Amino acid sequence: MELSNNQVRALFGLAPTARETISEKAEKAAQAYIRLHYARIILTRELVRFQGKQVAGIKYPSIYINIIQRALARLSIDMRKLKDFMQKHAIHVSEKASLSPHYIEHLYWVKGVKYSVGGAPFVLSRNVEKTLRYYMVELNDHQSYI
Predict the structure, then answer these.
(1) What is the model's pTM?
(2) What are the CA-CA distances from residue 72 to residues 36, 64, 109 (Å)?
């Protein structure tokens, strides 16, 4: 028998978890969209560099090109799913950021109401790096060459 999260919490005397509101889902969707947007820009830039042979000292650039192309393909699929979710819930995220030396801010709208999401540049950079690692390394680790 499999128990739900709330059933397990009840066994330990904990309150059930609350369902996420649409505004919480919208904020998570906006954050995910921003990470995917920046990851796509970086992957596209790197693909152009490798295809244009602008990277010196790489013996087999076709391997890197293949990894980047697969990462971009998977990222595009996930981005399409996220865009479908955002469209279903009337969420729009601006790709243009408001920049300051200590903060990067993106605006997003939920059914016409404006919100903002952002953070310090090093935090955004770290989150984009995790996203890139997921698409370039972890997805490729699950594939066997034998």
Answers:
(1) 0.79
(2) 10, 12, 27
Return per-residue pLDDT of the chain as tens, 146 residues: 455 665 656 666 666 665 557 778 899 999 999 999 999 999 999 999 988 877 777 788 888 899 999 999 999 999 999 999 999 999 999 999 998 889 999 999 998 899 999 889 999 999 999 999 999 987 776 655 55
CA dihedral (5, 9, 12, 14) in degrees, to 10, reads 170
Q: 9-20 burial, b if ≥16 CB within 10 A, otherwise e?
A: eeeeeeeeeeee
